[in-house]
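User: Teach me something about this protein's shape.
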Amino acid sequence: MEANLEGKEQELEQLRMDCEHLKARLASAQADSVRERKEKLALRQRLSEAKQQLLQQAEYCTEMGAAACTLLWGASSSEDAVKAILGGDKALKFFSITGQTMESFVKSLDGDVKELDCDENQFVFALAGIVTNVAAIACGREFLVTYGRVLLDTILQLLGDLKPGQCTKLKVYGGGVGKAGGGSPGTHVESRGPGLPRGPGHGSVRVRSRQAHWLTRRVPSCACGGGGGVATRSLAGAVRLMLMSLYNVSINLKGLKYISESPGFIPLLWWLLSDPDAEVCLHVLRLVQSLVLEPEVSSRSAPELRGSLPLQRILAMAKSRNPHLQAVARELLEDLRAPERDL
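Assistant: First, the predicted structure itself:
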């Protein structure tokens, strides 16, 4: 009995020791838990502060980008300024970032019409306006066709991603929208007539005078309605600017060939032509004119143009109450009927 009792006491002592050890471990674990909770709270606070700083930095960068690019957009209405921009060592990087920024902007919309930050709007519109103005002069078009093909591809892709007609209207101030060749304040006229060298086999072809469009006034800022024009947050402005830049590029023969050979380009034009926005349709018609007026391109595009031409839509535009749209639609119909054309 004594031996058994002694064994039990030893077991009890061992249990007491184990219990004390476990208590010590528990106290240590609890202390660690308290310390870790404090560390987590501190990390969460730091993360929250970092997120806030990142948001502030993003807002600052957007504001700075919007302001700088709006100023650059205004400056780019000067041919000398465009040449200076292209002559700098950051031109390639700038147009690469331009494409990435425009793509990010459109992707963030996810196909939905929603309120957009005014600075973000202004930033993207200014970038598109700069591209349009760069493409308004011969050396700018050559630069974009030679070094900016990724940007041109991005613009074509984004036009397909945007949903025409689902956005409210935005005034985009630029060159005239009347008949080509008329000229208007801020519009750089780039004539392509029979007397200008345009490549082999072009001398005897009737060519309509064409304009490259400058955008000399920016889209009004956040005040929306101030500054002499109506402005609402929308995608229509982005569509118009991208179409204007493509039209300017199309004045360059290599540029026209490149964009016309882009997969799905002609179906994209017909799709955009269904947009209820008159200015979007106007710029689409001008792009179609570029295809039709260039024999080297129209001969290759003729089967697809002939097979899918939305003639009734164009005929309806030729009777539009919008005088600019009506004039360009009638010009296009005249060009399509010309006996020299393979259409």
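Now, about its shape. The radius of gyration is 32 Å. Residues 79 and 137 are 7 Å apart (CA to CA). If you'd like, I can walk through any region in more detail.
User: That's plenty for now, thanks!
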